[in-house]
């Protein structure tokens, strides 16, 4: 069953989560105006799955069940799946700013891998539990929130050293029928309007912190769960035509003695596999982030072209405007290309999932994390200074000023002033409002901070291959071309694959 | 008479400007809560003039009158004045975000120069009119808004070609006792809470557009003046401790048949001198912008150090945090150094005013224009992702969540959670709110867009000196070291000056 | 027949080109020590075609003939061909610095397209002539030089306006059996050791300059051809272990009344198609350049890892070294990813050739053009200052200093000083010698200067799609999802995802 | 006595240093062609001291002796001295590429400070010894090499842990009349043509490594000193008109049991003061480097303007060329401004020396270190690709090609081809030759690597002042404006403006 956005919104009524917003308890998430833009943004992923022209991007057949599912819930099986997912994420984020639901995909794929691997190493039965859960989620076409980033407390201390144990989510009690967890996840995207949370560790824990290596699924309204959220977008703000319609909420989620039955527990103390799960999720997610922010780039490029025209400028004659537009394109497509390359050079997991290439995924995310600020700069550059000076939309209906302003704030004569102001406000909304701030911070830190990406790039890069090359060129040692046993296991080219043993690939 | 901030606020009651804000007429600027942060920010320039430790920076003796005046109204006479002004602007902007009043200084200095020069060339009497006006402004310790950036309409057309003449301010009628002006200035900083506007042209106009070359002083409540403004800062927002206190309003100012008596007219059709006035103002103002944004840098550096500590991190141990802090410092002090150099290598005008060096001033402004976005990025980098996820301050008083949040959102144990949240919100306020957006756009476009700075750098740089050097090194032609008649007139070193004929200086 | 490098070198004896080097006529290109590194670098493309593990990358079946040919001479027919070509170029350039022969591929593919298109529009028979020529070149396994960049003279004037007509190559005479050409091509890569030159126009010419729109094949020793070349690499320099072995020569090629028979003429006055040929070549070539410079990146990454180790540093402990290595990787793989994406989103020409996506190809080339300098910087950063201070290799055999130097210039104890010096000199060779300068300038300007890429990016980017998106989000006009007639013809797979069904399958 | 360049060259005959170059012993430094460009570059500092128009920059009165001395040997006493020194260094380096002798200034100033401080703390008599030495050096107008960077061996080990003690210079024996030193200094600028070496430690050593904390003066031909050097510039290369005239040699200097009498010993085991000496030298030197590389920038700017013109381009019409020129100017003057600011905000040492501000000095050096690569890029950008393709100058005299090449390689018609080639070769010489590589590496690592500057910026920056500001704005604690006891001692003028009265008067 593939829901549409209306059905998704209705389905939220089945849950009674304890959500606080601006200090007030939310009575009904589905009806809360301050959350409506967030619900609408997720809704795009539902509606687009029903559009014929997006069928290949937005839906896929789940191999383990043979059923057609939403792309955001699908387990990727080959390079094409990754390319389709990447394009799908770009598509829904270009429509909504950030459709959020791709986090479900990223977490499900990582759990698919980690449960399989944990079973292999520990003889557990997590994978079958997970498969049952996955199929159920796909059948119901749910949206899952990712509860990963712990509150962390003093960042220089391990979980077990913290004064307050609840700054990290952990297993407080192990029962015959399940586990009891407590603790706080600090940044949960779209928290109030998810169906369930996938709780996952945010780092590799040491053996003495084994109780912190926990992964499980928790309905949003499970007893003991409290969500303290921020409004999604800029609901009700007349200056924010876009962010009043689409937005994103982030929330702190507090777990207090929450019971999780066994069939929803996917990791419970296996430290190493917890680290694998974290890294695997990070790789899938960084790959998705590339598509998401490229969609954001699409919005800026389109708006940049429109505001330029409304200002009476022509990129073909005004070189500095064209240069800025080309920079915007170069940034957007430059990091997007890393997402494409990560899809092409993907790696098949023994569990049957493909991982986007870790080096390309991390480079793409690293580039967008830093360059989102340049994107803001370039959008401001082409739009001119008026975006912070133009009167608010309340003025549009002020009989004492509206006519004068319309007369003088026009740009190119054939483009009415209100059309010019509208696109200027659109850029302000995306880049110079608190929503714009959200896009920048979430691009920088979402899916891990730049430092984490640098570590992953270094860890995964086949530096040894490059050394080997130079050593050979300097006539050092014997270069056994037929053997190359030092090759990292598992790095392959999923394109078919024409040249698995090629050294040219990273 | 040097007012303090309370007297300044009271003085605003003497004016009855026609101000609209969010579609409503403002009854009293002095009492309007939505403008209070703007009034408070300007107020800093008044209060600091009374602080003994800032006396040298914040006050100066006006040579033409022998009176002690506020630095923001002083005509700079030597290199020290420029350094003091630069430091003074940094000081008041580090306190208030942006104290706005330095624009008065920049316009007064430029008018001092342009009226003198216009008289020299045209035998007019603008300079004496201006001196009278200047002394009056200084005596009353006023704050003057700069009404320069015209609405412009279609940017590919000249003023006289526009469909609506009022997209540029122009002389509509010349009377025996003065002139009548009409038109719109689009971005006027602090418009509602100024005492007067200094109207100035924003470019060199052609002879056929001579009526657009107009400069004059207009009281804020002159008949025919309408101000459509935006709120200053984030008044009343509990999440915005800083911007609820200090902020900036920008406004569109519409002039409809405004009469200006002769003694307040400083340019009326002299096109070339209008261009000189624009450029001269731009140079003074770009120099001031450097100090202003360095003050903004001070706020980010201080907050960055505090949030790092609250997060439990130590720059001496966590190299990536130290690197980010050093980048923030390098950016801030790097462009500030250009302001210092512009002060040192200033140029004395025949009128007796010193101009900061145009090359260094434009480079400093160009650097800050682009790098403000990097400053935002670095502030976000050191603060971590929580700044967009943390619950709003309303939650602080929610009995159902306040205690839990306080317990889990703390960082370093000896720093209470509320102190950590407070500094995180401070950074959000400055960089990820609409106020943050304002700081970035105004840095990019305020005082002219980057393209304008590039043109000025190229126009003013003594490229010929460098060519001469290389030609001599390639044994071309005769290098007459004693003569160097090609030297640009007027470029000197105001430091005394030890080496006016040195080729080493730019 | 696939030659190996020895056969290639021997084959050069069949030609008697008029080559000058350092003011002297070269007696035999095959035996000239100053050209040997260039011959060796091209030779890599011959030898690697015989290595089993590179078979899929280095060879391919030419569809029009059914024969197995060297990848450097193959007409690309699908996305896989482009990926294989990209990897192949990276492979041979990682071995040789720059193997040069990929230019043959780029020109042949462009001529395949342009001759087909010219015939379509003008009813000419260029394409069949070209196919005959192509198969002959493939059968003989030749290497073709690209003679494209005219000397240009005064760059502000058109060809026909130049004082000396010979600053551009042009048709001087049209005969019954062929044409006579004259003029100068200024930068011809590998000129002295090519078998033939493919002469091509370097821009779209106007109708009045139709004689400058000429493309043809000319044997290197045709009567009237003079080559003035520079040495390849650093032959004989003991400090340059790598560049003494592999290098690149560039040459000025002067054509004086050179007769070209009809079967070797591929364009003769068709201006528009000349422009198409130029652009098409540029796109293929920029795609290849991405692979080439990624291979150069491989050398720096490998050497950087080695010198770090020899200096006794460990990237895992010294964060600033790791950061520099990660930057080097991020740059290299970042622009390489654009090559991958250009391959995936390729476009099939009606002639049956695939073009790499123009936007991604130009972005990749633009990135590498600017970032080659950062690559040099990073290589210097990790290697430390000693690379410019270390004594030359002559000192290694100086009995009075060799022992002392060996004793004190060692780094990590288990790595002998000579191994440390060797890798330091390798980096100096690639980045701080005239060879290093060559790599940087050729990266910046080879395949067109950055300005040309910016123009192509802007011209090819589907900006209209992004506008359409934003207009729809702002509720402007009707968005007919099924139609989208504004779609640019020929883009088979858009980043905007409107046509998933036609996505190039990786 | 102020020598001129001829006298300086002659004075070198008084020394018999043991110098090896390309594996050969140098018979006479003054007569060695391979060193002549280095001697000529230093000679500029002698000749310019005799030019009337540079008198104020190039000479100064030494306060401790009352004598007129060369600026390169003067102890700076106030802000003006620092500005004059900065301009003087720029002047001589714009003439010679790098005049090297400013290192003498930097070391003498640091030793002046450190000997004074060491005496204060340890009751030693180093300062008087040093003053005697200083006056003697000034009287003789010598040039002193700085022997500071030790060979270092394994960089992860302390000096005392190294397998070979001689990878660091150290005191091997303490005698009644002096000390005996051994060890290797790896990068000594201008080593072969110095009069004496100032040996100094390159870091703070621990107590157990006290013997490595040694500073002293050693004549270049002292018994036991061996210099292994590289040629200066590109002597004899016809393509290198500039670098054949002016260049720089760097050398490894090996000290084997060199006896140094007490009156030339300035530090002998005082570890802390050794660190102070290192840091102090670094600050003076980084300030000087700013001037030096600005002079290099002057050469590129001049050459860029010339080659643009020769190519027939006009920056006023070709925006991308103007942008590149403006970037080149912005980089050069941007870091130079840091040198100016460091001079203005200097700090007076208790010994009577002024130190340039450490923050600004380090920022300026950090900027130039990274941006030298951008300077190369921009010079290549404006000059076009021909600089690597143009035939060598040997071709100019080849009767078979010279005329043709002259005819076709011209650019703008009124500029002969040879003038165009000459300036293209000049740019190649400075940026794409091994000399160009030297400029880049020495800019990056000379005076310490970027990591060292970052540490110094962080260590010296008054971050606490910025914290205090923000804490006050957040209403934390009491802000005692009159007191501010936390003030760092010794900062005489703070950017934070607390002490306007003590501002260094420019």
UniProtKB/TrEMBL annotation, chains A, B, C, D:
Residues binding FAD, per UniProt: 189
Keyword ATP-binding set for record: no
Molecular function GO labels: oxidoreductase activity, acting on the CH-CH group of donors
Record domain HpaB/PvcC/4-BUDH C-terminal: where: 278-475
The keyword Flavoprotein is annotated on this UniProt entry: yes
Keywords from the named record: FAD, Flavoprotein, Oxidoreductase
Gene3D superfamilies per UniProt: 4-hydroxybutyryl-coa dehydratase, domain 1, Butyryl-CoA Dehydrogenase, subunit A, domain 2, Butyryl-CoA Dehydrogenase, subunit A, domain 3
Residue ranges annotated for the HpaB/PvcC/4-BUDH N-terminal domain, each copy included: 6-267
Pfam entry (one): HpaB
Record protein name field: 4-hydroxyphenylacetate 3-hydroxylase N-terminal domain-containing protein
The species this protein was found in: Porticoccus litoralis
Lineage: Bacteria, Pseudomonadati, Pseudomonadota, Gammaproteobacteria, Cellvibrionales
């Amino acid at each position: 069953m593939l829901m549409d956005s209306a059905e998704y919104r209705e389905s939220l009524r089945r849950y009674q989560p304890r959500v606080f917003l601006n200090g007030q308890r939310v009575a009904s998430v589905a009806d809360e105006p301050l959350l409506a833009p967030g619900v609408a943004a997720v809704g795009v992923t539902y509606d687009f799955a029903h559009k014929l022209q997006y069928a290949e991007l937005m839906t896929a057949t789940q191999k383990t069940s043979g059923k057609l599912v939403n792309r955001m819930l699908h387990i990727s099986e080959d390079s094409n799946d990754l390319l389709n997912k990447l394009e799908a994420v770009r598509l829904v984020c270009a429509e909504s700013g950030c459709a959020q639901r791709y986090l479900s995909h990223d977490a499900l794929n990582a759990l698919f891998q980690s449960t399989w691997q944990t079973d292999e190493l520990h003889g557990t039965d997590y994978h079958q539990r997970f498969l049952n859960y996955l199929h159920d989620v796909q059948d119901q076409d749910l949206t899952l929130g990712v509860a990963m980033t712990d509150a962390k407390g003093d960042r220089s201390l391990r979980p077990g050293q913290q004064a307050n144990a609840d700054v990290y989510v952990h297993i407080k009690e192990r029962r015959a029928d399940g586990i009891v967890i407590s603790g706080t996840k600090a940044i949960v995207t779209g928290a109030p309007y998810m169906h369930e949370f996938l709780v996952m560790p945010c780092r590799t824990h040491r053996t003495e912190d084994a109780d912190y290596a926990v992964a499980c699924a928790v309905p949003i309204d499970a007893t003991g769960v409290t969500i303290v959220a921020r409004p999604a977008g800029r609901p009700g703000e007349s200056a924010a035509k876009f962010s009043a319609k689409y937005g994103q909420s982030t929330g702190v989620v507090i777990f207090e003695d929450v019971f999780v039955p066994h069939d929803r527990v996917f990791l419970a103390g296996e430290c190493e596999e917890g680290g694998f799960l974290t890294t695997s999720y990070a790789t899938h997610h960084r790959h998705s982030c590339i598509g998401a922010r490229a969609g954001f780039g699409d919005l800026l490029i389109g708006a940049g072209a429109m505001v330029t025209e409304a200002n009476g400028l022509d990129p073909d004659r005004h070189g500095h405007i064209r240069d800025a537009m080309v920079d915007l394109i170069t940034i957007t497509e430059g990091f997007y290309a890393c997402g494409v390359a990560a899809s092409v050079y993907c790696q098949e997991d023994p569990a049957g999932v493909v991982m986007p290439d870790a080096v390309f995924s991390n480079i793409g995310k690293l580039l967008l994390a830093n360059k989102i600020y340049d994107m803001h700069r370039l959008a401001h550059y082409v739009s001119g200074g008026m975006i912070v000076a133009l009167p608010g939309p309340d003025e549009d209906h002020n009989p004492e000023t509206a006519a004068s302003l319309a007369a003088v704030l026009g740009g190119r004569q054939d483009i009415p002033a209100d059309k010019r102001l509208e696109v200027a406000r659109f850029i302000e909304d995306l880049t110079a409002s608190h929503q714009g701030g959200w896009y920048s911070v979430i691009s920088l830190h979402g899916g891990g901070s730049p430092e984490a990406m640098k570590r992953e790039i270094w860890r995964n890069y086949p530096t040894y291959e490059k050394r080997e090359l130079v050593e050979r060129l300097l006539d050092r040692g014997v270069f056994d071309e037929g053997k190359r046993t030092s090759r990292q296991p598992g790095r392959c080219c999923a394109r078919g694959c024409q040249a698995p043993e090629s050294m040219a690939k990273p």
